[in-house]
Write a structure and sequence with these properties.
Number of strands: 17
Organism: Acidithiobacillus caldus
InterPro entries: GcvT/YgfZ_C, YgfZ/GCV_T_CS, YgfZ/GcvT
Shape: globular
Protein name: Folate-binding protein
CATH topology of the largest domain: Gyrase A, domain 2
CATH superfamily of the largest domain: Probable tRNA modification gtpase trme, domain 1
Oligomer: single chain
Strand content: 25-35%
CATH class of the largest domain: Alpha Beta
Helix content: 10-25%
Order of helices and strands: EEHEEEHEEHEEEHEHHEEEEHEEH
Largest sheet: 6 strands, mixed
Amino acid sequence: MTHSSFLAPLSEELGILHCHGADAEKFLQGQFSNDLTSLPSPGGQWSSYSTAKGRMIANFYLLRDDDGFWLLLSRDLTETVAERLRKFRLMAKVDIEDASATHALLALWGAGATEALGNPGGEDALARPHAGSVRNGARIVRLPWPEPTFLILASGDDIASWGEQLRARGAHEATGADWRLGSIRAGIAFINAATTEQVIPQELNLEVLGGISFTKGCYPGQEIVARSHYLGRLKNQCYRLRAHAPLAPGRAIFSAAMGEQSIGLVIQAAAVGDGSFEALAVVRAEDAEHSTLGLEAQGQVPLEKLELPYSLPLQKAAEAN
């Protein structure tokens, strides 16, 4: 039986930063929340870049290969992050380039995605989440989604060839918005220009997703992130929500308990075929667990809480008690 797979270009969703040079690993290790010294080549991990106050400027998927490090982040934050990294590199031998114009990303997902991809790098090269492979000019990495999902990064000419091959193997055309909906359902949101510097990494469930190291050296915002982890001061978490009204990044969320005081904001949203919208939103956990949520203070537009494919830290704590 042949299973379905879907193929979408991500040029409107994600930008690409290429960081390389003799000091690239050391420099980036001192900037990001995850430990990239343990990242195999090729391979990937979730990570983030924060202010000194722990607020995320951006989160991203970090891909490593023999050519350096590739940051896959919201398209509208690519230049912001590049400029900030350049500001702090001082004498470090590292080049930080926006590769969004010379390279492109394809997303491939679905029950038939592995079959459509073929066998890049050997039978088990892409069998586990975050595993990477390099083949025919492309860097391929498997994302930790509930169903097989891959990102394919290559130059413009090579990405066109990959697209043709995958369509010939039965991959159905999809859009970046389709992929975004899948990402939301996988519990993974990307900070963008509307939500930058609004939340700390744990509030976006980055600790659950393996995007934070608590054993590495210093990086901007580390003290705040560590304090939230070790002292248990996390009050907000990222929830998956649905509404029968438009949702967009930055939109405020309210609860019946708190009236006109907002208790959260939408981080990422996508339309669903039935006319509803799904989103990942950072919300005060007490309200999300014990009150009715809505888009208006008076509750005229209710929000339904949906399941995530993983357990949240505060839920685990409640179950333990």
